[in-house]
TrEMBL record:
The lineage of its organism: Eukaryota, Viridiplantae, Streptophyta, Embryophyta, Tracheophyta. This is Glycosyltransferase. The keyword Hydrolase does not apply. Pfam families: UDPGT. Its EC number is 2.4.1.-. It is an enzyme of class 2 (transferase). Belongs to the UDP-glycosyltransferase family. InterPro entries: UDP_glucos_trans (IPR002213), UDP_glycos_trans_CS (IPR035595). Keywords: Glycosyltransferase, Transferase. Gene3D superfamilies: Glycogen Phosphorylase B. SUPFAM superfamilies: UDP-Glycosyltransferase/glycogen phosphorylase.
Length: 486
């Protein structure tokens, strides 16, 4: 086929996030950055998340500001009234394979009919764990696919080594010493233990475990994409360079939420990515924070997905209260496992406590909270977005990871970057109490040196001339080149 060179075309990028808050948010930051480079953008959500987006954000003013932006939706294959937090990842993947894949193909075909306003898709940027849905379709329709893996680089690198660890009998390791060092993952020999491996490795049998095999498959499938985009920066430079052996091209453009702010600061635009997106934010905590002394408040949040058992919740509560520190706690209605809606109950404890040393909300404006001068520490599950948001704010962390990449992230936080403590696999109020005191008072000085250093690295990366700033320029230019060749 003869390809024509076209000099003045605005690329059209179709973005497809995995349908969860922690994946949608970084994808939306990237979409806004591409939109501000005058790209045409189609952002594809599942119907369920599209409805939440319409309900909780001011899409009209956003689209007025970015007329080159459109939102589309496809079915997830899940019934509308099912409780999302009660689903397993397998439920979601099976449903998406059956319903979302053909719907995404149809959508790409319909977008391929070029109009005066919109040219056909230049490329697809899809979540790196959606290769099962996007690879075949983009190859069939000859639309280049770029994978945005919203987890960090270390997590992907570890996945490339899991087949060998399984073959060597290192996995499964349950019932063995969880502190046993993991050998055979270059760059991680000195600090990775069994308990720090991805949550999917905690299985009794490895060969037929659906999720473990699924994520291994998706990680290797990503190498078929034209490029890998990672929400990371210099703190993972060594592992990114190791990953280079698997990919034609890697763009590191993190922390994305900060890069968006840095690149779009003069635009003063309404944003979808900086808000809670799928949840209504309770901003009353900002007023409470305004009346607290500098660096005195511990912010406690478990992201959008993690559930805690009653026992964990009770140990957490006692640890926080007994530490004597001020805290702002996010209790999502679905935070308590197996008791949908029960998380709302502790809100009653908030009554009359506002003037005291604690405050509870069901969903906080997290980036704003972490940037508030009154916040001095972060107790987090260690999701990658939360970790990056804590890093950018220069706030040291206590990680209480529960699954997935959180086990890896928390180990890097404590042992590699030394910006916090890792309390994985414990559930004890007195440990929480001690760690909170250490973070806020006793060991504060020793942890703040590296926290400030890593925060500076993050800011340098996203400011003009920094690595992520330049890599985004490179990505934009490469997509423009693709558009000229269509
Ligand atoms: C999930 C996984 O659990 C996580 O490990 C993975 O890296 C991404 O997908 P989630 O658990 O929601 O994400 O955690 P995280 O990555 O931290 O994302 C949560 C997002 O929700 C953050 O951007 C945070 O700012 C936002 N949030 C959370 C709020 O805005 N307000 C809140 O009250 C809680």
């Amino acid at each position: 086929m003869i390809r024509m060179e076209r000099s003045h075309v605005n690329p059209h990028v179709v973005l497809l996030p995995y349908p969860l808050q922690g994946h949608i948010k970084p994808m939306m930051s990237l979409a806004e950055l591409l939109g501000s480079a005058n790209f045409q953008v189609t952002f594809v959500n599942t119907n369920h998340n599209h409805d939440l987006l319409l309900r909780n954000t001011d899409i009209t003013s956003f689209c007025n500001r970015f007329p080159n932006f459109q939102f589309r939706s496809i079915p997830s294959g899940l019934p509308a009234n099912v409780i999302r937090s009660g689903l397993t990842a397998k439920d979601v993947f099976d449903a998406m394979k059956a319903m979302s894949k053909p719907a995404f193909r149809d959508l790409l075909i319909s977008l391929g009919e070029e109009t005066e306003q919109r040219q056909r898709p230049t490329c697809v940027i899809a979540d790196g764990i959606l290769c099962f849905l996007t690879l075949d379709v983009s190859e069939e329709l000859q639309i280049p696919l770029l994978a945005l893996r919203t987890h960090n680089a270390s997590y992907s690198w570890i996945y490339f080594h899991l087949p060998k660890l399984i073959e060597d009998g290192h996995i499964p390791f349950l019932d063995e010493n969880m502190d046993k060092p993991v050998a055979g993952i270059p760059g991680f020999e000195n600090f990775l233990r069994n308990r720090d491996l991805p949550g999917t490795c905690r299985v009794k049998t490895s060969d037929d475990d659906y999720l473990l095999q699924f994520f291994i498959g998706e990680t290797f499938a990503m190498t078929r994409a034209s490029a890998l985009i990672l929400n990371t920066f210099e703190i993972e430079a060594p592992v990114v360079s190791l990953l280079g052996s698997h990919f034609t091209k890697i763009y590191t453009i993190g922390p994305l939420h900060k890069l968006r702010k840095s690149r779009m600061k003069d635009i003063n635009s309404p944003s979808v990515s900086s808000s809670g997106i799928l949840q209504k934010e309770d901003t009353s905590c900002m007023t409470w924070l305004n009346s607290q002394p500098p660096k005195s408040v511990l912010y406690v949040s478990f992201g959008s997905l993690v559930g805690l058992t009653r026992e964990q919740m009770s140990e957490l509560w006692h640890g926080l209260v007994n530490s004597g520190q001020r805290f702002l706690l996010v209790v999502r209605p679905d935070l308590i496992l197996g008791e949908p809606g029960a998380g709302a109950t502790p809100l009653a404890q908030n009554k009359g406590t506002e003037e005291r040393n604690r405050f509870i909300v069901s969903w906080a404006p997290q980036e704003e909270v972490l940037a508030h001068p009154a916040v001095g520490g972060f107790l987090t599950h260690g999701g990658w977005n939360s970790t990056l948001e804590g890093i950018v704010a220069g706030v040291p962390m206590i990680c209480w990871p529960q699954f997935s990449d959180q086990f890896v992230n928390s180990r890097c936080v404590s042992e590699v970057w030394k910006i916090g403590f890792d309390m994985k696999d414990t559930c004890d109020g007195s440990i929480i109490e001690k760690l909170v005191r250490d973070l806020m008072e006793n060991k504060r000085e020793e942890i703040m040196g590296s926290t400030d250093r890593v925060a500076t690295m993050a800011h340098d990366a996203v400011n003009e001339g920094g690595s992520s700033y330049r890599n985004l320029d490179g990505l934009i230019e490469d997509i423009r080149l693709m558009a000229r060749k269509i």
